Amino acid sequence: MFDIIHKQKEIDLSKDIISSCWISRKTNQKLIFNNYFEITKLPAGIWLSGGDRKLITKLVSSIRNAKEVICLSTYIFSSIEIKDALIEASNRGVRVYLITASNKHLKSLPEEDDNFNKRMYQEMSLLFQEMQGIVKIRTSENFHTKFLIIDPNINELSKGYLLTANIDTKGLKGRKIDGKYRVNQEICVSLNKQEISDLFKQFCLGFWELSKEESKSDGFFPINHQFKQNYQFNSLLINSPNNKSLKNEIINLISKTKGNLYICTYGISNDNEIYDLIISELEKNRKIFILTRPRNSKMKDLVTLSHKGAVIYGHHDIHAKIVISEESNILLGLVMTANIEKINFESSFETGKILNPNQAKTILNVVKTWIKNFPLELKCNIKRSQLNEEVLVWDSIRENLVTKTVISEKVEDLESEYATSIFNYKNHEISHSKLKIPREDSEIFQKVIFKYIVKPPIKPVDAKLELENDKIEKIKSKKIKNNFSVFSLNGKKFLVVKNEDELKKAKTHAERYNAKIVTLEKYIRRVE
């Protein structure tokens, strides 16, 4: 009997480069319920979204305490709790106004949130139907700002809140999506009296001049505006058709500071001046940290920023919009509703607030906590050996992100190898051309191990018996007993042996018949 030989070849891919991918970070994901704070303790006037409900409780409480007027602005509206509070306020005589993006806009254009789906649209439509005739609703596809104003004309009672969150459940307190609790990373800041006055002017600008449709009891209808007024803003930052103070202040903040720069944004693209300025600052070796959401449409521009030196952290639910410069003990920053994209600074209706030193310090600490706990980091030109668990790989050809599992050792079982010679078959090695790296559709391999077994050469299946074993053959007038069976195929002859002990004797017979020495599968012993 012949033994089979177990062999393997290894191809080390650990030093191969992945051009761009989001790598998993080891962080405390158990704290996601309160946005990575075990107990959310923030100074008065600043709130985070999260399961502790502090943000939504504050908003609902303020609405319930309103005496005369409530002005609300949001891109998306789907919070049942806020809806109920608004209807309750209206029923007790408070005038309630809402500006938001139109139903038509939400149907026809790409959603702001990648997880915004048909169910969300249906929820929003139902809420609008409940509020029609009770809440005065006007819409425009450009309304993107998020804020709440309570009694702006009653000085001692007026309250104002600027949010990065939409008035929707996921943005304010979180919700279960596909069985998993998810909450956006969001910030809300309270406003002082001057800022409330500015915000009310902005609301009036949107409601009376920029809105396109108005909600009636039987649907939304176009508006023919007659009202025009020249609004002057003294403290808040605005983006509107005639006011670009928000963009100008961001440019001023970045260009006139030199410290570490922290940017939180849902989206960032290369089609605007601020992106160009960020590139310029990176080329000066400025340290810039960007917290954003991994999305196909923004990946090319994020990869460029990463190549330039930006440190980029990712989270599938980041939605806050923050810019803070940290230089020695000086902090300058702002919170806003705009993403860093052309549309937000050209046509969107947006709001921003310059942070005072205490607010900037608090919010920077929030951002640094997020940095510690965000589950993803964008890496370019990274070795496979540096990857672990699961990664999001950027396919620059198809322009999409692909989730892949990192496999430290991929084992491929190959077909049996039959040696060419039976005498040294144990030393046979597989041809390198047969070692094909498997497709990596959903995996990334750091090493591929090819396992195979080597067998001695065997008789071809179609070979015909030419000379039986033990047959007396007359060769050169001599009678010679043939100890081996001989087969032939296509002019070639094959002499069959049963074990290695027969090889020496078989060699003489093989030379006589010009035959190749082989064996049969039944004479090969499998050794595990």
Would you kindly provide a written description of the structure presented here, covering whatever features stand out?
A hairpin with a 2-residue loop joins strand 13 and strand 14. This protein has 4 domains: 2-18 and 383-455, no CATH class; 35-235, Endonuclease, Chain A; 240-371, Endonuclease, Chain A (2-Layer Sandwich), CATH 3.30.870.10; 464-525, no CATH class. The longest helix is centred in the middle third of the chain and has 18 residues, at 193-210. It is built from 12 helices and 35 strands. It has a 12-stranded mixed β-sheet, sandwiched between helices. The chain is an alpha+beta fold. Helix 1 (54-64) runs parallel beside helix 2 (80-91) and helix 7 runs parallel beside helix 8 (273-283).
Strand order of the largest sheet: 15-21-20-19-16-17-18-22-3-23-24-27
What best-fitting shape do the alpha-carbon axes yield? elongated
The tally of structural domains comes to 4
Count of alpha and pi helical runs = 12
CATH superfamily of the largest domain: Endonuclease Chain A
The stretches of 5 or more residues where confidence is low (pLDDT under 50) are 109-116, 475-479
> What is the annotated CATH architecture of the largest domain?
2-Layer Sandwich
CATH fold annotation of the largest domain: Endonuclease, Chain A
How many strand elements?
35
Radius of gyration: 36 Å
Mean pLDDT: 92
The fraction of residues in strands falls at 25-35%
